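[Meeting: bench + compute handoff]

Bench side (C.D.) handed over the final construct sequence. Compute side (W.E.) agreed to return the predicted structure before the next meeting so the bench team could plan truncations. Sequence as handed over:
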Amino acid sequence: MAKSKSQYVCQSCGANYPKWSGRCENCGEWNSLVEQIASGGSSAVAKAQKSGKTLSVRTMKSIEDSDESHRYKTGFTDLDDVLGGGILAGGVSLLAGQPGIGKSTLLLQLAAYVSQSRSVLYVSGEESASQVKLRATRLSADASDELHFASSTSADDVAATIRGSQYSLVIVDSIQTLSLDDITSAPGTVSQITNSSNVIIRAAKESGAAVMLVGHVTKEGSIAGPKVLEHLVDVVLQFEGDRYGGFKIVRAVKNRYGSTSEAAIFEMVQEGLKLVENPSAALLAERQDADGSVVLATLEGTRPLLVEIQALVNPTNFGYPKRTASGFDLNRLNLLVAVLEKRTKLNLSDKDIYINVVGGLKLQDPAADLAVAMAIASAAAGRKLSENLVVFGEVGLGGEIRSVRGADQRIAEAKKLGFDGALGPKSGKKNLFIRSVADIRQALVDYVK
């Protein structure tokens, strides 16, 4: 019998090597090469050349418009907006997030809601039926006769079930646990994830069933497995936040059927995840008006949000000052500290600086620059920000304050919560609510008292 040839495949990028090495030369990852049985590539190419046939084509004008009514509501209005109006029939979505953040809880609640009007299948490759039943009982998600359950790690069986049954929605928890019988590598490897996803996606397109896949993440926070997994699916949802408390945010990283600028904000309670109706009021409920505390008017997708930025500045006990940021990019913090030292009279070279975004949120909004800079200056000087103001604006390397998107929405949210004004960049139209500042030096002189 001929000896089967093996190859080593990188689990991060999918590059092939004839022998093992500690580091992938293509992507630079260490200890990512896994041995797999090589497939007959040349014979597959020869077979494809003989079996291929001419495609049937038609004009774009002759194609019928898709029926948007084939969307299933999730029971969470904000999550429907993130998905572009609901779960689209025949679409495949991937939900990824940290372990324990609530992915299975969210999908079980979603499945229970959809099962009130349609047939739903929940497939688990990680938990047994009794374990899922315990969660369903806690979430009051076990009352519907149309919510079905199966426990399997075979991608072949899951795909066959999707094709042979009339389920409107199929949830697979998780894609990293599935494997194909024809592939010898272990579940979770590049080849298993790629081929299992392909089989399930083809089954979903043939049957018209909507499929939602759960994905794991690496310790760096990126979706585990090959990048091609994100390209294969129609929608990629990222579940972010602190798994031990605070708010949790679902945002669309990719969406073929809608916008990627929406976000749904949840909080975990005993009965499961629930939408936060007024997150700004909840985030500011325990705020103390002290030095180093600044209220930022930010945007989560298209939703305006007021969040407290806290700064603590202390003399360093070591030769090299420490910079720490929770919920804010550390490189951006170092840049803002450099701008403050260069463009103002603040001396921060011998100070430890700590930044905290209250509520466990992770800010990606450039408009947070001015609020962070003002919080650092307030803490360093031991003085409060004058009056009842919210702050927003991007800070340039020259110390100038640049305009940001959604200024009207930020101002409307500040007015709704009773603030007297907003400190921000100059705008083209007059607005008495905004206290315009041209640069960071002017902002510190005029408003840190």
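W.E. noted at the follow-up: The chain has a mean pLDDT of 88. C.D. will use this when planning the next construct.
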